[in-house]
Each structure stands twice: as C-alpha cells, then as structure tokens.
Q: What sequence folds into this?
C-alpha cells in the first residue's frame, strides 16, 4: 500500500497539471476466475481523493469510473428486403470494440463531463468504440455503430449507470460494477476520473485480469493448443456415452 | 442451475441443455435421423454462437446415433455393406461440399445459401414423403395392401439395369453399387454444405429410390450418419476450434437417454406412421426457416465478434 501511494505520488509529481487532487483507489478484485458455475460477478471500485490544499469550493468534485474489456474487431450486418426475402445486404467492420464497457458516474453525464474531455480521454461508450474508417464502408455507417451499442446494451455488455458512484465529503467514493455471466476473458482496465466543471482534474488506472479457471481453462487451452486431440476426445466421449447408455438401458430392461 | 461454457463463452441453464438433448435424442431414436437439423436451430435460439452451435450439434448427433445404432445392431437391422458403400460416396461428396462451401464463403452469402438449401431440400423431401406415406396409410385402411409391393418393384426396375451388381442381403436387394454410391455422395455433399448429418435425406432416399426393406433403413442410416458427423466434428475442431465439449457433454447425457427411449417407440410404430411423422417434422423446420427469410426480422442488425468462433 505504501509503495502504491509512493508510486502515485511519483506519478503526480511527473504530471504537475493534475497534481492538486490525486486518486488513491482500490478494487475488490484484481483477478476474476471464470469457473464452470460462473454466473456473473460484482467488482467494488473504491478510493479517496488525496489533496494537500483545502477542498476547492468553486466547482463540485465529480467522479467517473469506467471498466473496459478487451477490444475485438466486430462485424455489423444489416438485412435488406431483396425480391421478397430478407438477407444481409450491408456489412460494416469496426476495427476494435470493447467486449465489455461499463461507465458509472456520480451525477448526470452531461454535467460531470465536458465534450472536449470526453474526446480527449475517450470516456463514454461511443468514444470507447474505435470506428475510424467506417465512413468508407457504408453511407450511413453511424447507424451501424448505434446498432452495435444498442445490441450490446440489451445484452448487458455495455452499461451506463448515471449517479451510481457515491461520493462522500468530496473525498471518499465507491461504486459496484456488475459483470454479466456472458463475460469474455482477457485484461480489463478500470479507470477513475475526477472532474470539476466537466474538466478532468485527475485520473487513475488499474487492471483486472479475467480468465477461465479449472476445467474451463483446461478445455479451452486444449481446444486451442491441440485441436486434433480435442476433437478426438470429443468424439470419444460421444461414442462412449452412446454405448454406455445403450448398455445401461439393456440392463434395466432385463 | 447455470453453467459457463468454455468455448461458447455464455452461461446457460443446465436443465435446459439436458432437455434439448433429450428431446432431440428422442426424435433421433424414433426416426433414425441424427437431429442436426433440429439441434442447431435450438442452440442458436438459446444464444449459442452459430459456429459453436453447428460444431457441437454435430458432436451430439454422433452420441445419439451411436446409442441408437447399438439397439439396431442387436436386432440385426443394420445393413453394414450398404452403409459402407454409401460412406465411400459420402466421403467423396463431403469433400466436394467443403470446397463449394469455401467458394460460397468467398462470395459472401453462406448464410443465405444454407437457408435456401434447408427450405428447398427439406421442403421437397418433406412434401414427397408426406404424400407417399399418406397414400400408404389410406391404402392400408381400405385393405388393399397387395399392389404396393409390385408398384414399388416396377418403379425401380430401371435401377436393375445398371452395371456392377452387388447383393445386399440385409436390405433384400440385388442392385448396382452406383445408386447407393450416388446417394451417399449427394448426402455427403449436402451435409458438408448444410452442416447436418443428412438423415432426413438418406432415410427417404433409401426407401423411395433404392426400395430398401424399411426395417433396416433406420439402423443403416444411423451407421452412415455416425461417420459423416464425426468427420465434420473433427473438421470443425481443427479448423475453427468451435466444438464446446462442456456443452456437448450436457446435450449428450440428455441425448443418449432420449435416443434409447425413442428407439423403443420407433419399433412400436408402423413404418407409414413413422414416415408421416418425420415428413411433418421436416416440413415444419423448412416452413420455419422459410418464414424467417420472408417475414420482417425483429432486428435488421446483427453483430458478430470476428475473433469468436
């Protein structure tokens, strides 16, 4: 802990522009194991604002917390009506969209974050999607990005929770971020932004490693590392199960 | 009770998977079809990614078919010779199919191609089977069963003239090897391009084109399906890493039990009744897929992670 604070101090000194207020933060978990009975998880993000001077009173302090999953390229298809049937007529490929993205704030997003700082720090969900170059792929490419955000929101993979970060005495803050059951593994990044009047005054970043564990991990690794063996094992299980069931039913009938 | 599937990367209810496996296994046992044409749409419906659904569905079909085949072997209702001849054709056909599938993929319309194949082949076969078995049932009721056998033989007399005749004692046939070889080839081709075992095609083909003894049709079809689907499981595991073993095991546990019960039910039903029920099932799936093509979809957009299987 002391080392972490020293590190934060060092970082603070290296960036004097943000030095007035600094974030000291922690996560309830730095690792999440996806086991066979994994059914979603909660991460508690908490921390405090460290400052040398008295609390500034002109603009109230606000906190934004984001948790971002590993980025992946995504294809978005749109169906069209051609000769009476519905088929995929248009496709747009997004270079990288996070597999999961949650954003929690201490107040209405429009008040706690200015547009310029959103662009600069890439905080809101549309900013987290790297959609450079999609304009060449379709004339109304933005509707494809909107559809991606809408579908992932429905699946609980993109979450915007306004006002769910509780902030105490402009110093202590905390929030719970729900991770859904259909989670992809990889390195997740939690970011904390302190803002005043919509401008970011301090940031903090830490990682959460989400990985499969136990049998899940073993099966996944085998499928990736030795596909022929994995395929044969799958077939062997199928044949053995079919044979055993048939033999068992024969015994029962006697 | 939920389980997280390692390859599909979704969390699904265990009992839901057991009952899907059981239901499809039951039908597989009754009709001698692998059930691939049912399990893949069902898995898609509960949110399994398409690649995983096709590959893992095939693995479940292997288990259900082995389980059903054991019963038929004991009752001596499998024509291994016929099955092997069809397999040779099936192997050639599925390799051609894999190649054509690649061409369609490059053209960018695989999904449409697969859906059209389903609607066309299942619609045509379902209609033919339904008509025939309906007539057979009516004839059976009016008591005039005798002319059936003669018309069947007469209709397929052209097959008798093909060269390289072979005796298939279990099927009660003495015919050229080419018709079964060709049927196997067509089935292998369709199973590779449509991602199904091909039972719904091979069963009517054996009955109507070859005029095989209906009692051995189901067992022989299961024998052939095991090898065709096992080949596709290996192909999917190696090319896409898309077989989910945890999902497969749960489907299999339900499936093998269902298949055992189904096989017993199958022996109690009359051949015409079996055929008309299978015809209705095949027609229902083709109508469902056909409607999906025609009706306005609920969401015009769909997303797919490129790295995901």
A:
């Amino acid at each position: 802990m002391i080392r972490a604070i020293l590190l934060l101090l060092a970082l603070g000194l290296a960036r004097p522009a943000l030095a007035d207020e600094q974030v000291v933060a922690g996560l309830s978990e730095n690792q999440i194991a996806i086991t066979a009975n994994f059914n979603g998880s909660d991460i508690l993000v908490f921390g405090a604002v460290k400052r040398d001077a008295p609390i500034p009173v002109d603009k109230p302090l606000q906190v934004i917390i984001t948790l971002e999953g590993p980025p992946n390229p995504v294809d978005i298809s749109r169906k069209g009506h051609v000769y009476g049937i519905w088929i995929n007529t248009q496709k747009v490929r997004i270079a990288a969209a996070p597999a999961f993205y949650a954003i929690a704030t201490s107040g209405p997003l429009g008040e706690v974050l200015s547009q310029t700082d959103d662009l600069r720090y890439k905080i809101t969900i549309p900013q987290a999607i790297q959609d450079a170059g999609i304009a060449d792929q379709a004339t109304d490419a933005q509707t494809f990005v909107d559809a991606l955000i809408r579908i992932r929101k429905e699946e609980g993979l993109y979450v915007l929770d306004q006002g769910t970060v509780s902030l105490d005495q402009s110093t202590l803050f905390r929030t719970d971020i729900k991770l859904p059951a259909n989670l992809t593994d990889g390195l997740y990044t939690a970011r904390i932004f302190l803002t005043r009047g919509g401008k970011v005054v301090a940031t903090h970043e830490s990682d959460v490693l989400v990985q499969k564990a136990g049998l899940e991990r073993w099966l996944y690794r085998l499928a990736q590392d030795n596909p022929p063996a994995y395929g044969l094992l799958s077939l062997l299980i199928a044949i053995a199960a079919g044979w055993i069931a048939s033999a068992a039913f024969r015994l029962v009938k006697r | 009770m939920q389980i997280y599937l390692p390859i599909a990367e979704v969390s699904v209810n265990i009992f839901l998977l057991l009952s899907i496996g059981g239901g499809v296994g039951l039908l597989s046992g009754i009709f001698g079809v692998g059930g691939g044409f049912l399990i893949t749409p069902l898995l898609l419906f509960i949110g399994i990614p398409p690649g995983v659904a096709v590959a893992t569905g095939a693995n479940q079909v292997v288990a259900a078919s082995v389980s059903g085949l054991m019963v038929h072997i004991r009752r001596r209702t499998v024509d291994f010779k016929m099955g092997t001849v069809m397999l040779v054709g099936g192997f050639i056909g599925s390799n051609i199919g894999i190649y054509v599938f690649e061409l369609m993929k490059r053209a960018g319309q695989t999904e449409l191609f697969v859906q059209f194949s389903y609607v066309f082949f299942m619609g045509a076969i379902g209609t033919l089977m339904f008509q025939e078995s309906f007539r057979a049932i009516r004839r059976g009721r009016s008591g005039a069963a005798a002319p059936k056998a003669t018309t069947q033989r007469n209709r397929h007399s052209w097959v008798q003239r093909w060269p390289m005749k072979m005796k298939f004692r279990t099927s009660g046939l003495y015919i050229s090897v080419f018709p079964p070889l060709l049927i196997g080839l067509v089935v292998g081709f369709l199973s590779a391009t449509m991602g199904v075992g091909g039972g719904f095609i091979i069963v009517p083909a054996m009955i109507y084109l070859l005029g095989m003894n209906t009692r051995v049709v189901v067992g022989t079809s299961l024998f052939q399906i095991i090898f065709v689907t096992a080949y596709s499981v290996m192909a999917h595991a190696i090319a896409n890493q898309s077989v989910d073993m945890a999902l497969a095991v749960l489907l299999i546990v339900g499936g093998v039990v269902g298949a055992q019960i189904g096989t017993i039910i199958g022996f109690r039903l009359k051949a015409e009744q079996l055929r008309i029920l299978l015809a209705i099932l095949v027609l229902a799936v083709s109508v469902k897929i056909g409607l999906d093509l025609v009706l306005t979809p609920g969401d015009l957009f769909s997303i797919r992670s490129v790295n995901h299987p």
